[in-house]
Design brief:
This protein has one domain: Rossmann fold. The protein is about 35% helix and about 25% strand. It is an alpha/beta fold. Helix 4 packs across helix 5, helix 5 crosses helix 7 and helix 7 packs parallel to helix 8. The structure holds adenosine-5'-triphosphate. Adenosine-5'-triphosphate binds next to strand 2 and helix 2.
């Protein structure tokens, strides 16, 4: 990936590090978001630490996906959205004009609930991002594709059919392909919105293993309804309710010794 890193640097895609930036890669301060008059995020104060897995949990409609999408500025595309407050990525406010969205998204990948490969071959899905960043050399692209598929624990299953359609893969394989597609641009963060909720237990296990194996290189924020999954894979957990953060702490504390009775009730399945 060094070549890609160099190329991204050459093309000035790198985000300038703010002097005040230390460990949190993302911080939100006083973040509020409205869909029309509906107040979906209320005064969110949350740090997402670098090279950790942060789980975002809470009942349906509490604002988890909205929050996640705010982190790569996807929510602004919805009609009638108003945002106030700050969301900083490495100390730079992404809601201001200082960071173009394409620069942010070259650093922050997103994986959705339903796998969404492009209608292209397995190879072309993974090579797409590097090509957009100007890499044309065939050998270099092949190297990036192989490395990304290996990191996504998919290489052995697809190495003999790289030029077959991505749609020929199973749902679980397609989701790992989407993660490989993110990894191919060497992101700093991957945002995952219920990435295993449409998958069987074996595929879910593979994705969880994959998350564990990449977390030393990539920061991950994951929305999940699966409490066991949050407990298994995350370092920190944020519990959302009605658009507010009720509690954010180390995952072991949230599950074993939460400060708020609402958190206790939720993680123990008494509501939601
Ligand atoms: N595009 C939109 N336009 C208007 N309201 C929206 C839009 N997207 C979400 N909402 C509303 O904002 C609130 C938060 O929705 P969001 O999808 O963020 O919740 P969630 O916690 O991710 O829910 P789920 O677990 O069901 O996916 C809900 O009341 C939802 O109806």
């Amino acid at each position: 990936m060094t070549v890609l890193k160099e190329r991204i640097k050459e093309n000035s895609f790198s985000v300038v590090r703010n002097e005040n930036w230390t460990k949190p890669i993302y911080e939100t301060n006083g973040l509020n978001l409205w869909y029309g008059t509906s107040h979906a995020l209320k005064n969110i104060e949350l740090s997402i630490n670098e090279r950790e897995v942060t789980a975002i949990i809470g009942p349906s409609g509490c604002g988890k996906s909205t929050f996640l999408k705010t982190l790569n500025r996807m929510v602004e595309t919805a009609a009638d959205v108003t945002i106030s407050g700050n969301v900083t990525f490495k100390g730079n406010n992404i809601l201001g004009k200082s960071m173009p969205v394409e620069i942010l998204r070259s650093k922050v990948g997103m994986v959705f609930q339903k796998p969404n490969p492009f209608p292209k071959s397995i190879f072309e899905n993974v090579a797409y991002g590097p090509k957009v960043h100007g890499i044309r050399n065939k050998a270099m692209l092949e190297m990036i594709v192989e490395e990304s598929l290996k990191k996504a624990a998919l290489w052995d299953e697809v190495k003999d059919r790289l030029h077959k359609s991505a749609y020929s893969l199973s749902g679980g394989q397609q989701q790992r392909l989407c993660i490989a597609r993110c990894l191919a641009i060497d992101p700093e963060v991957i945002l995952m919105d219920e990435p295993t909720s449409a998958l069987d237990p074996v595929s879910t296990h593979k994705i969880e293993e994959l998350i564990r194996s990449i977390k030393n290189d990539v920061t991950i924020a994951i929305v999940t309804h699966n409490m066991q999954q949050a407990a298994r894979i995350s370092d920190r957990t944020a519990f959302f309710l009605n658009g507010e953060i009720i509690e954010h702490n180390q995952t072991s504390t949230i599950f074993n010794n939460p400060a708020d009775p609402l958190t206790d009730d939720y993680v123990n399945g008494r509501f939601g």
